[in-house]
Here is the input.
Amino acid sequence: MPGTVAVLRMSPVHVGGQLDESLAFFHRLFWTFSPCIEAFCHCKPLVSIDGTHLYGKYGGMLLVAIAQDGNSNILSVAFALVEGENAESWSFFLSHLREHVTLQPGLLVISDRHNGIKVALEAPDGRWLPLSAYRAFCIRHVAANFALTFKGKDARRLLVNAAYTKTEVEFYYWFDILRSEDPAMCDSVNRIEYSLWTQLCDEGCRFGYMMTNISECVNSILKGVRNIPMCSLVKATYGRLAELFVRKGREAEAQLEIEQQFS
Here is the structure.
């Protein structure tokens, strides 16, 4: 497809301690499609990033960037096949995501707390530093880690309720319950900047978008393809995104035909 971006990285092969320039192994692949790049220009200025494991003969990870439009529909805008989650693989993905898709300044990145993501986003040459971009945490990942430490104390529900509140009164209501359950809960939460996990302190940058929604992406675009060969996986993302754009285009045309108005 015209406008498709694909960046392939290969690993050199050494035979008997000598570099064999006639051979190379697959290392990493980043790709995105022209309609995804165009669509992101009309989405909210945020992107969530996450990874999902691949199964079958080769293994590895599939990294995905997910956008959200003004109607809260999600759209996968970029992908990368990598060896696993580490600082180098995330830097590879995020550098090309920034270069080819997410060109806007002031972008919010929602992710889990993986150290590889942190290193990649904080790289001085990565164009992901404030004021160019900001970071927030997926509340599902924060709450899951929180619940591992504070088992059997309804910790997950209390933390999520606090994260979703939009006023100080509501936030401190749930925070006081956390403190009454176990003061150590509050101490743990206070080690994370509030702007990274609460709606109250995010200055509206999240647009209410609190999770990476990788599971929804897997179900809509990646269902049944994580154990197939890599070339087939790339083709599957193309085919399913093409179906999505056609379906959404027809829905929009039908709405315009009955003179529905958008604001």
